[in-house]
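Quarterly update from the structural biology core.
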Amino acid sequence: MDSFEDLAFFVQLVQHGSLTALARDRNITPSAVSIRLTKLEKKLGVRLLNRSTRKLSPTHEGEIYFSRGAQLLAEIKDLNQLIASSRTQAKGLLRVNAPQAFGRYRISPLISEFCRLYPDVDVQLELTDNPIDLIEKAFDVSIRFGVPPDSRLIARKIAPCKRILCASPIYLREAGELREPKDLLRHQCLVQQGEGNAGAWLLTRGGEQELVKVKGALSSNDGEAMLTWALMGHGILIRRDWYIKRFIRSGLLQQVLPDWSLPEENIYAVYPERTHLPAKVSVFIEFLARQLTCIHEESMQ
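Predicted structure, tokenized:
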């Protein structure tokens, strides 16, 4: 017999006070209750109850087994309720991972608002540009651009994101305007190091598709450094619309080849596959999806 079931049986037996009362409650015969008690005492190697015709009284060992057992059962019940409530009530520690720039610029302010709405949730935010192992690092959710290749993870799109070609008006006045993708070959292009197919820019317009192998004097693995170079007139940059639209609206940068599009890098909430997602994770993802979609729509106007 299972030890937990044994414990629950004995505690119930003492609480009912007789074999007959427990048998009636469990809809079994008194002899079945007696047989189970005998097996339990044999298993433990001690007598747990003194039996009389009218009542049961615990032995010294039985009293210890009952009192400690009742306490353990109550703690297990509380633990089960606590864990079950995590599926319906947003509370506890939420560990979030996000890219550095986007995390500082967008996710951090939204977490501030989220914590006001859900004061029982503590949020730990870690910003990293390189992909991490969410399962090994025990993160609840990661905010990423593009679908991750790890099949152990669930990826839910929470907001759109496009990439834009842009350059400063100063650079374009000196180097000349672009009319088609092949014009990129005669321009200085700021290439992001560390990305797959760095320098191979794929542009699409309707059914047309052009893959251009670009190059330039400056390259970096840091997006902020490349943005600075673009603002200072050093070349053409690819940047996500979330971050670059404000510079275009201000006139500091100008969109290049606006009729052509680059592969999208939509924003995803990525989390380990689970049968039951804790409420703290599900409400956080829903909150981000609502807020980021609204922010994106407003910023694109």
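The two ends are 68 Å apart (CA to CA).
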